[in-house]
Structures are given as C-alpha cells and as structure tokens.
Write a structure and sequence with these properties.
The structure holds two protein chains of two kinds. Chain A has 15 helices and 15 strands. Chain A is α/β, with parallel strands linked by helices. Classes of the chains: A alpha/beta, B mainly alpha. At the A-B interface, helix 3, helix 4, strand 9 and helix 15 of A face helix 3 and helix 11 of B.
Chain lengths: ~350, ~290
C-alpha cells in the first residue's frame, strides 16, 4: 500500500500536468474526414494539441450540439444548408473570426456561396471544406441509357433500382418533374404542392425500387453484387465502386446533380477555438488536401481541387463530369424553418404507402 | 444500537437502487414528459400544449404504424412462445443433468454477439446473392435468384431469433421447479399427452409463460436495429418514427410524445394480457 500510494499521486500529478499543458481539439465530423495520417501530422506540428474525433452526420451533429447548447465539441462540419436555420432555432454555433483563417487558397465561388448562406446579423458562421454531389449511378453494361432522376422509376429497370428515402430524392424528383424546389422555399404553400406531386410519383415508383438503402455500405453491397443496376447515390460512393468495377459510373442527372458543401463551423461553447482555426488552416494546405481527398473521396474547396485528387478518383470524376455538368450543378439552398417538417411528413407518407 | 446498525445497512443497501431509479429512470422520464408537452410557436419560442399528442391522434400514419408494431410484436411473442416452450421443456425435464448446462449455454451463445452483427449475419444469408439463394440455385431447386430480405416475414424471423432466449430462460426456471411426479400422476389418472400438457404443465408454467411474454413483447416493440436493417420498403416500425422525429426532423417535442405513446401503449397491452390470463405482475415477473 505504501508503495502504491506515491505511484498514484505521481500519476495524478502527471495527468494534471498534461491537462494543463495539452489542449484537446474535439472534432465532430463525418466518417473519413479526419484520417489518422493527417491527425498524426497535425499532432506532430502542434505537439500541445491532442485531436479527438467523433464521427457523425448532419442530423446527428445538430442533435448532439442541440442537446448541450453547443458544448462538448470544438469544431463541427455540417453541410452549408444546415447552419442558418439550426443557428436561428437552437443557437448552437458562434461566428467565425475570419482573420484567423487563411482563405487565399479557397475556391472563391464556394467560399462566397457558403458565406452568403451562413451570415446572420453580420457574422459569418462557416467556411467551406469539402464538396461533392448527389446524383445517380448506373452499371453502364446493364443500364446504358440511364440519365435522369425519373429513370429510377423507369419500368425497364423494375426491381433493379434503389434510392435513399431522404430529402435528396424528393428534390431530385421535383427537378425531374420540371419544378424548381429551391425557388419554392420562399412560398411554402407552393412547395407543399410540389411535395404532394413528388409523393404521388415516388409512391407509384415504389414497386420499381428493390429496397431503400440506408447507408453507403448496403448501397455498395447491392450495386457490386449486381442486385441493382442503378441507384441514387453520393458521388464519392460511386467513385469508390468505379475503382472496383469500371462499368459503375456516377451519372449527373440531366436536370443537374445536387451539390453539397461540408463546412467548418464553431460550436457555441467550444473551448479550443485557436486549435480549431489551426486545424482548418492545416487541412486546407494543398498537400493535406490531397491526403484528405484520398480519404473522403470528395473534392476540397480549394482552387484546382480536381488536380489534387488521387489518380483513381480523378479518373472517376473525369468519367462522370463534363464541364457542362459542372455548370449545371444545383447547390442545396438553405432550409428555411418548417421545410424539414413538410419534407419529413412527405417521406413518412411514401414509406407508409403500400404499393409494390 | 444493533437495530440502528441494521437500519443503516438497510439504508446503504437501498441507496444504490434508489439512486438508479431516481436518476436514470424517473428524472429523465419527467424531463421527456415535460418536453412532450411543449409546442414550438416560433424559433426558440415554446409553449405548453397537447399539440404533439393531438398530432399523433389525427395523423393515421402514426397510429397505424403503432398498431402495426404492436401487432407484429404480438405475433413475434406468440412464435417465440411456440418455439421456446418445447426447447425449455426439453432442457428442464427431458435432458440429463449434465447436458442441461451445455444446452442452456448453447442458447446463450448468440447473445455474446451484438444485435448489429447478428442482423448483418442474416443479411449475408438472405440477400438475393446471399448464401441461401446461391445454395438453392446450385442444388437446382430454383432457377433464378430469390430475395429473402426486405420483407415483413424476415423482420418477424429476425426478431424471434433475437428474443426467443428471453422466453426460454423464465420458462426453464419455472418448469425446473415442477415435480415430475405431477406429470406421472396425470398419466396414471388416464390423461393422454395433450390433457397432461393442457391441464397440468401449462397451468403450472403460467407464471413463466406470462413473464417471458411480457419481456419478449416489450423487447420486440422497442427494438430498432432488426426492423430497420431487415425490413423492406413498406415495413415501418414505431421506433423508427421516434428516431425520425428526434434526428431527421429536429422535432424533439413530438419525438418525446411518441416515446410516451409507445410506453403507454405497451403498458396497456401488458396490463390487458395479465387481466386475460388472470395473472399479476407479482405472481409472474417478480417470481421468476
């Protein structure tokens, strides 16, 4: 006992000293957005900062921050359309000090877009990090003519398509019906009208769909095994599959792929802002961007991002996107209050409908 | 002095239980209940009202899903009883002393693996390009691939598989306490196998049956992973609705209300079951 006691005291003292000198950067981010090799290099450059990562998704990030009023994490990475309304409703972020972020290298179009979407009372709440699109993918050898959102409901591919029952498919279907859902955000009655039409379409489409996928893994399994020939997808998932089977390509829908931008935002009660800014500047350096994109499969919001992709991903992007497709991108618009509820109800209606 | 010491030790024994109940069960439920009574008027403005409960009653999708969940859970309970009873009877009455422990262990083994992994196991077996479909095709029994996954039958099967153990354990412990001579006496008095089962074994095992049914029903109505992973396009489950309200719709108020609706509904079904079978909680769950 006498010998154990000093040891305990020493350990306690040591850990107290650790706490005093080392800062912890608690990241709340997407799976693959904080690869081990980058964390290691960051910790080597800043030995007094320790990085702790929690993987999550848009909805769960907001739920986690809402539960604590914005405490528990120092840097979050929600998509650009999930900041404005969440901040208005739950007050979970704090404005960025832009002077501490090196923005010289950022792609101006994306930076301005994110700033515009996330400015509240003069404060900017987010800067862009990674961007990518949601669209379609198809096995070219089995579905050579696949080109638009409505092809998911094409009887030619009956029982061989899949989609995720989330808001993306509502928006994509609306575009394929010639509507502009983002423009209708300002007139919610009109938007409800669009949603009703979309719901009818997707309910009648149910028998065409094999199953609704829930995460990247089950989508990949269905696609690689050939159980489905086409699906709604994230581009990064399609690029991954392209590496395994060159017939599986990402297809920007004829009405335009839907583009998202994942951002950096500071939780309101974060405790390590300086470390967070250091992380932002660190991972936006060109050499880090290359490593990051290899892990995420998405493009960074820096100039010339496509050239910083690893070779296999670059080939996949080139196989998918022409310059016109890039011009045709539809960026997700800010979600105004109330829309989440309307969309949620519509999705429930589709799921509960018995057809197919 | 000694009685004081006794009181103190009683108190000390009681404290962990009281803390557990108060801090982890009662307090969170009070918080949830308060949350469920709030209605969002405008961003960051909430008012007390019954709107969330009214919303549940007026929207058929919600109570249909709840009834569906309840119905399927009853079916799961019934099937678990049907499968679990013979297994429990064999372990308790037929198997020898030594094989008893081994058999019991065999029943426990699936519990060592998490729900999630077991669900993925089923997915590997049942999918269109999975083990069973491929094997059937190779044996020439079927021509094309068959999809076993993504339908309600799969969900029922997956749930029965997950919960059947919780039926077997209370049944074994009840049947274990039954004197074999009672069964022999039944036969001696001229009863056939069915009469003995109906008049002697089942009435004796009733507390175990009811206890198992309650646990199994609650587990299956409250399960989330199995219905989500194995279910198909049309299989809605009420816990999924609660998750959606909380997470994808940011509507904690309504999610909390749904949580209470589920609690009240399952409690009601259990109460009804106890009334119909003429049992009480103290004679069943508390006993086994």
């Amino acid at each position: 006992m006498k010998r154990i006691l000093p040891a305990i005291v020493a350990t306690l003292a040591l850990s107290a000293a650790n706490l005093a000198s080392a800062e912890t950067l608690r990241l709340l981010t997407w799976g693959s957005y904080a690869p081990d090799n980058i964390i290691k290099m960051f910790e080597e450059k800043y030995p007094d900062i320790e990085v702790e990562v929690t993987f999550s998704n848009n909805e769960e990030m907001i739920a986690k921050l809402r539960a604590t009023g914005g405490a528990g994490f120092d840097l979050a990475q929600p998509s650009h359309d999930r900041i404005y309304a969440a901040q208005l409703e739950y007050d979970i972020y704090k404005p960025l000090d832009l002077s501490k972020i090196d923005m010289s290298n950022m792609e101006a179009k994306l930076l301005d877009g994110v700033k515009e979407n996330t400015t509240i009372d003069g404060g900017v709440y987010a800067v862009p990090h990674q961007w990518g699109t949601s669209g379609l993918m198809a096995d070219k050898s089995k579905a050579p003519d696949f080109s638009g959102w409505d092809d998911l409901c094409n009887a030619q591919y009956k029982g061989k398509t899949s989609m995720r029952l989330k808001r993306t498919i509502l928006l994509g279907t609306a575009f394929s019906m010639g509507e502009d859902p983002f423009a209708a955000y300002s007139d919610l009655d009109k938007y409800q009208g669009i949603l009703d039409k979309v719901a009818d379409k997707l309910i009648s489409c149910k028998e065409n769909v094999k199953a609704y996928w829930k995460g990247g893994d089950d989508l990949q399994a269905m696609m690689l095994s050939g159980e489905i020939v086409a699906s709604e997808t994230w581009d990064s998932t399609a690029y991954k599959l392209f590496a395994e089977n060159e017939n599986i390509v990402f297809i920007p829908p004829s009405t335009g792929a839907l583009a998202w931008i994942d951002t950096f935002a500071l939780p309101r009660k974060g405790k390590a802002d300086d470390a967070a800014y250091k992380w932002i500047n660190f991972v936006m350096q060109p050499e880090m961007v290359k490593l990051m994109s290899a892990s995420t499969g998405a493009m960074a919001a820096v100039k010339g991002a496509k050239d910083l992709l690893p070779d296999d991903k670059k080939a996949a992007v080139n196989a998918a996107f022409s310059d016109e497709d890039v011009q045709n991108l539809k960026f997700f618009a800010n979600i105004p209050p109330g829309v989440e509820d309307m969309e949620g109800k519509t999705l429930e209606k589709i799921k509960a409908a018995t057809g197919g | 002095m000694t009685s004081d010491a006794k009181k103190l030790s009683l108190l000390l024994l009681f404290i962990p239980f009281a803390l557990w109940i108060a801090l982890l069960i009662v307090l969170p439920h009070i918080g949830m209940f308060e949350l469920s009574l709030k209605e969002k008027i405008a961003p960051r403005v909430y008012e007390y009202s019954l709107a969330n409960y009214k919303n549940f009653v007026t929207e058929p999708i919600y109570w249909n899903t709840l009834l569906r969940t309840g119905g399927v859970s009853l079916l799961v309970t019934f099937l678990a009883l049907l499968i679990g009873f013979p297994v429990a009877y064999y372990i308790a009455k037929v198997a020898g002393k030594r094989s008893k422990g081994a058999l019991f262990l065999l029943c426990l083994i699936p519990l060592w693996v998490s729900d999630l992994i077991r669900a993925f196991g089923w997915i590997l077996l049942l999918r269109e390009t999975g083990v069973i479909s491929t094997a059937l095709q190779a044996s020439g029994l079927i021509d094309g691939p068959i999809e076993f996954l993504y339908n309600d039958a799969t969900v029922v099967m997956g749930l029965v598989y997950t919960v059947v153990l919780f039926m077997i354990v209370p049944l074994v412990s009840t049947l274990d306490g039954m004197d074999n001579e009672m069964i022999e006496a039944g036969y001696n008095l001229g009863g056939n196998g069915f009469t003995v089962l109906r008049r002697i074994i089942i009435p004796y095992a009733m507390p175990g049956i009811v206890a198992g049914c309650i646990v199994v029903f609650m587990l299956s109505a409250g399960s989330y992973l199995t219905p989500i992973l194995l279910g198909g396009k049309n299989s809605s489950w009420f816990t999924e609705q609660i998750y959606d309200q909380f997470i994808t719709r940011y509507n904690w108020e309504s999610g909390a209300a749904f949580g209470f609706v589920l609690l009240i509904f399952t409690s009601f079904v259990v109460w009804l079951g106890l009334k119909l079978s003429g049992q009480t909680l103290s004679s069943t769950v508390a006993k086994s």
